Structure formats: structure tokens, C-alpha cells
Amino acid sequence: MIVIYLKLSNNERNQIAGKLSEGVSFERVLSDIRTNLTPKLKFIKIPQSQTIENRTVDAADDWAGRFWARTWCNTKAPNFCETGDCGSKLECAGNGGAPPASLVEIALRGWGGLDYYDISLVDGFNVKASIEPVDGRGADGRYGCKKAACNHYINDECPQELRLYGSTGVVIGCKSACLAFNTDQYCCRGNYGVPEKCKSTDWPVNWPDFFKKRCPDAYSYAYDDHSSTFKCIANTYRVTFG
């Protein structure tokens, strides 16, 4: 497990953007992909005996971005990581992670002076993820200053049509319907590019319902805002993968 503490500061965006855009990397031990999880951050080896690793990064108070986990990584392979890869580079340097990947998204000091954060499975799932404010304030209710999490290991139950198999033949990710089928309706684009015309209940198969039942806090498709967006004011956020 890796825990990242996101601390707000007055640093300029261009000083911290490179750090915060990098995916957190995990290396899985092939003999047991569930229990033998060796965490790595920026490909720095963490001792096998160490089960939890913490890292802290600073962010400007108006920063917005995302965190994700890269898994099944091998620096000698054509693609560094089999999920979340960012162009086969050691450091992502602003590049996004290849889906499927569980995303932790946050926009600091947005509308109304609040921070907005979420867990997104719009690009699919690869590892469990969560984000929570530390000593948060300024928002109440179900989505006010609460922990947002996807704590269900979805890969074990992923429908056959959505499965991503790794080089060893095991399921290492669960694709979104958009990624798996690439249709305008499933991707909420073209004629389906507005919320009124892209409701998952109208789809041929309601694939987002599979994700939502297992991770009700998370975005299950592009227009799942009403039950997925959290808000708060905090100077520190705890982001956890694994």
C-alpha cells in the first residue's frame, strides 16, 4: 500500500506539476498477485518487509490534477507498466496514464473556494484507491469532507467483455465500456455528448451499474456527477492506493 499526503503550499504550478502528474507505480509479485504487493514510488524500491509506504508532495493552492497507480511494471519491457503506463517513461512528466486505471482526481480552491475531489472509474479499474481530507471543513452532507473510496477489488469479478489480461494470463484491469467498445453512446460523445442524452440506464447494457454497485463513491461513467463529486476545504489530503 502507498499513501500520499497532498499538502497545499504557495509554490508555483510549474514547480510542482511534474511531480504530481506522475503515476504511482506498483510491482506485483507474480506468484500471488493479491497478497504480495511490493509498492514502488517513481520506481524506487521499497523493502519487501515494508507493507506501507508514505510520500508527501506539495501543491499550489489552485492546482488541479490526478493520481493513478501503475501496475505490473518492468523497466526492461517495451511498456514499463501493463496498466497506467505513461509512454514507457520512468517519469510521466505530465503524460496521462494508459487505461484502465483507477483515478484520484482533485481540483483545489475551485468554485466557492472549495476543493473538489473524486474517485473515477471512467477509464476503468486497476487497483483500489481512496482520497480523504485531513481536518477538513466548509462542507457538510454525504459528499462534504468525507472519504471517497473504491475499496472493492473489481478485477476478481470483472465481466469477460471488460477484462484486461496481463502478460502472465491473469486479469490485471477492468475496462470501462467506452474503452472496451469505443462507441459514441458508451463514451458520451457526438450525439450523446450531453448528460440528457447519455444516461447509462438507456444503454444497451448498463455497464456502469456493475462498477457503481461495487464502488458507489466512484464515477462509473462521464455523467455520474450527482453521486460521485466530493467537496471540502483542507490543507492536506490523504491519497491511498492498494
Summary tags:
single chain, 242 residues, mainly beta, Thaumatin, eight-stranded mixed beta sheet, Osmotin/thaumatin-like_sf, Thaumatin family
Structure description:
The protein is globular, with a radius of gyration of 18 Å. It has helices at 13-20, 177-181, 184-187, 207-214, and strands at residues 2-9, 24-28, 37-41, 44-45, 53-60, 64-73, 81-83, 103-107, 115-120, 129-134, 148-150, 163-165, 171-174, 230-232, 236-241. Strands 2, 3, 4, 6, 7, 8, 9 and 14 form an eight-stranded mixed beta sheet that branches. Strands 5-1-15-10-11 form a five-stranded mixed beta sheet. A two-stranded antiparallel sheet has the order 12-13. It has a single domain (2-153, 216-241), classed as Thaumatin. The protein is mainly beta and 242 residues long. The termini are close together.
